[in-house]
Amino acid sequence: MEETPKKRQYKFKHKRTGTNFKTVKIVRRPFGWYKRKHGIWLDPLLPSYQKLLKNNNFMKKFTNNEQVLRIIFYMTDMENQNKNHRKYWYNPHTKDVTLYKEFLKDSKYLEWKCAFCETPIRSSVEDFSPTNFCCDKCGEGIEKKEMIDKLIVQSSLKFTKHCKKILKAQQRMIKIYLKNK
Questions:
Q1: Do 70 and 21 contact (CB within 8 A), yes or no?
Q2: Cβ of 60: how many Cβ atoms within 10 Å?
Q3: How far apart are CA 69 and CA 161, in angstroms?
C-alpha cells in the first residue's frame, strides 16, 4: 500500500495574542440575551475586538461582510502591537517628555568629562573611540593625530569602571526587586 502524503497545514499565529487569526469566531446572534453589538456575539471575541465594536458605530456597515471584519480586527492587532513606540515617556536623561525611541537613544549616553579640557560631555556606552571621550573642539585635533594620548586612555579606563559600577548597581536593584516578589 502506498501512503498518501499528508498536506501541510500552515498555521498563522498572531504575534501578540498567540491565537490563530483565522480561527477567531465571529458569531452572529441577532436576538436573545447574548451580549452583542451590531448583531455580533461579543463573548468569543478578544477584548480589543469587543472594544472596537462597542466604541465605533461606523462598524455597523461592515458587520455583514466577515472578511472585512477580519481585516479590521487584524488592523487593530497591528495597531496594538506598535502602540508603545508611539507613546510619550518621561526621559530622565533630558528631563523632558519624548518618544520611546528617543528615550532608548538617550539611555545609551552617560554624563562624562572631556579628557583634555574637563568640559561636561555625553559619552556613548557602546563607543570606545578616542573622540567619544573628548569635546568637539578637542576631538578635531585627535582625528588628525595617529597617536592616542595618555589622557584619553586614562579617561576610557575610568569610563569603563564607571559603566561597570552603574550596571552592578542596576543588577543589585533588580535582584532586590525580584527577591521581594
A1: yes
A2: 13
A3: 56
**Dihedrals phi, psi of 107, to nearest 5 degrees:** -75, -10
Q: What is the pLDDT of residue 48?
A: 84
Residue 19 has pLDDT above 60, yes or no: no
Beta-carbon neighbour count of residue 121 at 10 Å?
Answer: 20
C-alpha cell at 58: 461606523
Task: State the Cα–Cα distance between residues 69 and 71, nearest whole angstrom.
Answer: 5
Please give the model's pTM, rounded to 2 decimal places: 0.52
Question: Which of 2-6, 60-64, 162-166 is predicted with the least confidence, judged by mean pLDDT?
Answer: 2-6
- HSE-CB at 2 with a 13 A cutoff on CA atoms is 2
pLDDT at residue 161, rounded to an integer: 93
Residue 51: all three cell numbers together: 472594544
Q: In the chain, where are the structural domains located?
A: 21-81, 86-180
DSSP 119-150: -EEEEESS--SGGGGS-HHHHHHHHH-SSPPH
User: Which residue type occupies 121?
Assistant: I
